[in-house]
Amino acid sequence: MTNKTTTKCPDCNYEFSIDESTTQCFCQKCGKVLRIENEVITTGLSKMEKYNKSLKSWKKTSFVIALITLICDIVVLTSDIDISVFFLFIGIAFGIFGPVAIAITEPDGSNIKNSGLRKPNRVINWLKYLLVFLLLGVIAFSVSTITYSINRA
Ligand SMILES: [Zn+2]
């Protein structure tokens, strides 16, 4: 037999009873997720959910930065000088600041209890992403070489 306790939704003030051992439930009136920690009720996302959310958008943004860099690299290596100067500037800017921005904005989940996540090492990650961007340059170079040989044939 579990003990029941009364809880009050902080959002809509609806009162209802839950098991004393419950740590998470839905408000029976407004449907909000309620978290119960040491008898304190909070609504909204947990730290882990927030971390996962920011990780997702960080990955998306990083992918877009890498994609823009790759496209610029390919355009610079394959097209006429007139167009490529513009893309050269963007390519250089993204090539230099892209890895820095990605490394700096990587979400830190190390303050979440029991998550097993470690604090990201910004410098090592920066070097890692720099390497990825160098690889993008190599890919762009390969693509342009293939395009060039196809055009000549
Ligand atoms: Zn409610």
Keywords summarizing the entry:
153 residues; 2 domains; binds zinc ion; alpha+beta; three-stranded antiparallel beta sheet; two-stranded antiparallel sheet; 5 strands
Could you please describe the fold and organization of this structure?
- The chain has 153 residues and is of the alpha+beta class.
- It folds into 2 domains: 40 residues, no CATH class; 106 residues.
- It is built from 3 helices and 5 strands.
- The strands form 2 sheets. It has a 3-stranded antiparallel beta sheet with strand order 3-4-5, with no helix packed on it. It has a two-stranded antiparallel sheet with strand order 1-2.
- It is elongated, with a radius of gyration of 25 Å.
- The model has no long low-confidence stretch (mean pLDDT 89).
- The structure holds zinc ion.
- The site of zinc ion has 8 residues, from loops.
* Gap from first CA to last CA: 82 Å
- Largest sheet strand order: 3-4-5
- The amount of beta strand, in percent, is 5-15%
Averaged pLDDT, please? 89
Uncertain ranges: none
- Total domain units: 2
Helix content: 55-70%
**Record field, number of beta strands:** 5
Largest sheet: 3 strands, antiparallel
Structural class: alpha+beta
Q: Give the cofactors and ligands.
A: zinc ion
The H/E string reads EEEEEHHH
